[in-house]
Amino acid sequence: MIKAAVFSDTHGNNAPMLAAAREARANVHIHLGDHDRDAVLLRGAFPDTPLYSVCGNCDINPLAPPHLTVELGPVRAFLTHGHLYSVSAWQADRLVYAAQEQGASLALFGHTHHAVYEQLGGVTLINPGTAGKGRNLSFALVTVFDNGAIACEIRELKAL
Questions:
Q1: Does this model's pTM top 0.90?
Q2: DSSP 8-state code for residue 88
Q3: What is the tens place of the pLDDT at every residue in 57-89?
Q4: Residue 38 in contact with residue 17, Cβ under 8 Å?
Q5: Nearest partner of 46 among 24, 76, 13, 62, judged by Cα
Q6: Nearest to 125, CA basis, from 84, 154, 155
Q7: Strand 116-120 and strand 106-108: pairing?
């Protein structure tokens, strides 16, 4: 079983993310951009926890790639910020197609600052919401079971 703490859109407000990562005790951390340098802080705070990160539309001279495909146990996951796939509160078709092209059954994305956990076109879509900017801060705790089942909790972050 894999437990992943997924963060996006931290925008330099790292204290809530770091506190949540400490509390979650996940065995993988994922940062989905907009201030991809915040992922460097996450890696430094938890050097023994694997970290996957991608850049977002607010990342100038990004450190991370725009998308990644990774294996989370038996599940292939497509990671991206979402802006390159025109995601919005009502639109994720291009993201679903991109995930399908990569053979991924899970797509993790950010950009909209709104948490999402839904199925579309055979792909589980998860957006953890914003971890750094906005009124309702959140992150996702994603569990991938050995049989390939996926569970997700959208958790509130406490502003510090």
A1: yes
A2: B
A3: 999 999 999 999 999 999 999 999 999 999 987
A4: yes
A5: 24
A6: 154
A7: unpaired
What are the two backbone dihedrals, phi and then psi, of residue 100, each rounded to the nearest 5 degrees?
-60, -40
Q: State the Cα–Cα distance between residues 148 and 154, nearest whole angstrom.
A: 19
CA distance 150 to 142: 7
Residue that has been written with the tokens 């926890």 in this structure: 49
Task: Dig out the tokens for 121 from the structure.
Answer: 């076109």
Which residue has 């406490």 as its token pair? 158
Overall number of domains in the chain: 1
Question: What is the strand order of the sheet 106-108 is part of?
Answer: 67-72, 75-80, 106-108, 123-127, 116-120
Residue type, 89: A
Query: Nearest-CA neighbor of 60 among 84, 33, 83, 88?
Result: 33
Could you list the residue range(s) of the whole structural domain that residue 61 is in?
A: 2-156
CATH code of 82's domain: 3.60.21.10
How far is Cα 10 from Cα 81, in angstroms, rounded to an integer? 12
Q: What is the largest CA-CA distance in the chain?
A: 40
Check: CB of residue 122 under 8 Å from CB of residue 44: no
